[in-house]
Write a structure and sequence with these properties.
Length: 180
């Protein structure tokens, strides 16, 4: 009777160990874990950002993240001006980037994806802060986002709108540069 009690736990351990190995080999053969987004939770857009000031690496800047115009919290980048975000899919976010003595930058993210899409690239974000230049600048446009980022079907990823960026840069001629 004692042998039978010890045999059952050994058999259970062997089964538990073999199940993950089988599941891994099946997922590797298919090449992906899921076929549709409704098969899993927690889809997000990875954002990798880099902030410079007048073209140089910067530290000591602050960020404020909003979801649907509700503040989620304050964030800080690292000493090399880098930051990482994970934004939920099918949501709207605004990221304010602030550094004393520099013009604030705002980025707007529309993370909506086509419903059947399960694989997509991360978004790389480069932001250049500049000192305010009031000469010839219409202050009305300083309250608009510097960039609008959304899914671009033709490019197959998240990209900022070149048309919008060009328009804002024209309006902020004394503030904006080639990067947002």
């Amino acid at each position: 009777m004692k042998r039978m009690k010890h045999a059952i736990p050994s058999l259970l351990i062997a089964l538990v160990i073999s199940i993950p190995a089988t599941a891994q080999s099946n997922s590797k053969s298919k090449g992906k874990l899921v076929d549709r987004r409704d098969q899993a939770e927690g889809w997000y857009l990875p954002v990798h950002g880099s902030v410079t000031a007048d073209g140089d690496k910067v530290d000591g800047f602050d960020m404020v993240l909003y979801k649907d115009n509700v503040e989620l919290g304050k964030l800080q980048g690292d000493k090399n001006g880098r930051f990482e975000l994970e934004l939920d899919i099918d949501q709207f976010y605004t990221l304010r980037i602030l550094k004393e003595g520099y013009q604030e930058k705002m980025l707007y993210f529309d993370t909506k994806l086509p419903p059947d899409l399960v694989k997509y690239p991360d978004y790389e974000c480069y932001v250049n802060l500049q000192r305010p230049n009031a000469q010839g600048v219409d202050a009305f446009y300083t309250d608009f986002p510097s960039a609008i980022v959304r899914w671009d079907e033709t490019m197959g990823g998240f990209y900022h709108s070149e048309h919008y960026l060009g328009h804002i840069q024209t309006r902020l001629a004394g503030i904006a540069s080639a990067t947002f």
